Amino acid sequence: MIWLLIPATFLFMEFMAWFMHKHVMHGFLWFFHKDHHQIEPGFFEKNDVFFLMFAIPSWLLIMFGMLAGNDYRLFIGLGILAYGVTYFLIHDVLIHQRFKWFRNTKNWYVRAMRKGHYVHHRYKNKEDGECFGLLLVPMHYFTEAFKKR
Fold it and tell me: Is 0.90 surpassed by the pTM of this model?
């Protein structure tokens, strides 16, 4: 039953990502996130530093969980890792297409997530914005994408 911590942590991470995005990235760490909302030359962004905010705790939880005989920390760390991989694939590959892998997808769920994220990027200031989540965006984006399929 301890393995259920993986999907539970994964689901919790969507809330954490929303919270961090709205209150930290668009808050006191806007300096690092700002270049993600403004087109600048180059492949890397200062915003990429946020990867470490999730990768380091995941790594530490996995490591200490394994050192303690595969206790609960391992499974929480794996849940964070799973969310991180999902975030990378959806945010950097499907939405922003930093890697040109799935450019022409017609999937309605992917289209809804893209639309929500693009609406979020209309705002160039840290105080403005909407749709801070990744996997869960407002229902009207899903409805609109589903009708267009």
Answer: no
